[in-house]
Amino acid sequence: MYLLLGITLWTMLQKAKSGDRNAALLSSFALVNLLVYFVLAPWTDSTSTSIHWPLSGYFPLLVFAPATLLSFKLWMQTRWSEPLARVISIGVPSIGYLGSIVALLVIGSQAFQTQLQPIVGEGILSDKMAGWNEFSEHTAQLLDHELFVELPVIVTDNYYTAAQVMFSGLMNGVITLDNEKAVRDGRRLQLALWDMDDSALEDVAGRTALFIIEDSSLNILENQMMVESMCENASNITFLDSLSLFNGAKKFSYYFVNHIIKTQNELAYSDYPCPLPPMAWIDPPVANSVLSGTSHIEGWAYNENIGIQSVHLLLNGTEVIKMNYGAVRPDVVDVMNVKNDPNSPHLGFAYEFDTSSFPNGIYTLSIKLISENGRSSIYGKRLIEIEN
Fold first, then answer.
1. Where a domain ends, among 245, 271, 297?
2. H or E, element range at 197
3. What does DSSP assign to residue 151?
4. Which residue ranges traverse the bilayer (predicted)?
């Protein structure tokens, strides 16, 4: 199909040279869009570009594609044979059609995420458009929480979640703190015009809020920065609840905001503990390790302003044991610049893992952190092999 479009573009350029205005107009549209994409794409990354972006360059070519295919068929008949020419001329659009069907099936498979994930494995299927019904139901339940004596403002970490909140009818006016993604996707000005960006927080000062973060779309540092950003605009924030879908592939955290403030004329957010997400690391075993006999597991975990209550070892998502937590780790305090964890410097955990209790095979090893505020977080997921 791409070969056909390339030949079509070349044919259109030849016609344009011969004075065909229609070919000149459409080929100029196609060429400019395609050149901009193909020249700039190699210097960007997968989060800043997408394979569907050059579609605006392909569409003008489709106008001349049937005529090009017919000319190509006649050329093949004189060059080879009529049956072969017929097969190729039918096969080219058929391949394009099948590719479109496959793409639609991949997109549609998100509706069956729960059923398909155990078959194809985690991280294979996209979940961008999956789980929003469950999200809407859970969010609606939290809006009825006893902490909210009045209908709160909903603040999100990205515009996509904000759009889903509005689409589900939970609330008309939603504010998003998203800047980087909004700028990258060309939404920043649009959000500002609709009073949905962070500047709109001043207009709702004094009101309570439900702050929602899509944890699965952020790394831990981005997550911390987002929570800190909200803390700068709130009198007090409390972790409220979390929602985990598809074995943690899509996860949200919910925070209760006592009331939104204007930081320039009210108490600084540092006067209140900011409920930052925890940080953790597993030292041994590293990913793809082979464990046998009794294997040593250790690492560290901390939660600024909150503290870690317990650390649990998980195999394939099932809890094995509550590990010993509280080993002195001054190195972690220094390197990670830990300031306000109440357990500091007792941030280490360790456990002697008896692998003989488990059948030989490949497992997913991870740890579950329980923070002092009741928050549960999964960290350090990695594959290991038990071989005794």
1. 271
2. none
3. P
4. 23-43, 55-75, 87-108
Mean pLDDT over 31-58 rounds to 80
Residues 312 and 264 reside in one and the same domain: no
For 331-349, the pLDDT digits (tens) are 999 999 999 999 999 999 9
Q: Give 145's contacts (C-beta < 8 A, 6+ positions apart).
A: 240, 256
Query: Are the C-beta atoms of residues 205 and 235 closer than 8 Å to each other?
Result: no
Q: Are residues 177 and 225 in the same domain?
A: yes
**Is the per-residue pLDDT at 61 higher than 80?**
yes
Task: Give the structural domain span for 249.
Answer: 132-271
The DSSP annotation for 92-114 comes to HHHHHHHHHHHHHHHHHGGGGHH
Position 107 in a domain: no
- What is the three-class DSSP state of 272? coil
pTM, 2 dp: 0.80
**What DSSP designation does 140 have?**
H
The mean-pLDDT minimum among 79-88, 110-119, 128-137 falls in 110-119
Q: How far apart are CA 215 and CA 282, in angstroms?
A: 20
On whether the CB atoms of residues 154 and 174 are closer than 8 A, the answer is yes
CA separation for the pair 157, 218 (Å, rounded): 10
Asked if residue 105 is part of any domain, the answer here is: no
Domain presence at residue 126: no
Residue 42 binned pLDDT confidence (cut-offs 50, 70, 90): confident
Element (H, E) at 164: helix 159-167
Is the Cβ–Cβ distance between 27 and 16 less than 8 Å? yes
Q: Is 108 among the domain residues?
A: no
Taking CA 35 as the corner, what is the angle to CA 32 and CA 39, rounded to the nearest 5 degrees? 145
- Are both 259 and 306 inside the same structural domain? no
What three-state secondary structure class fits 176? strand
- Number of domains making up the chain: 3
CATH number, domain of 290, equals 2.60.40.650
Distance CA 257, CA 207 (A): 9
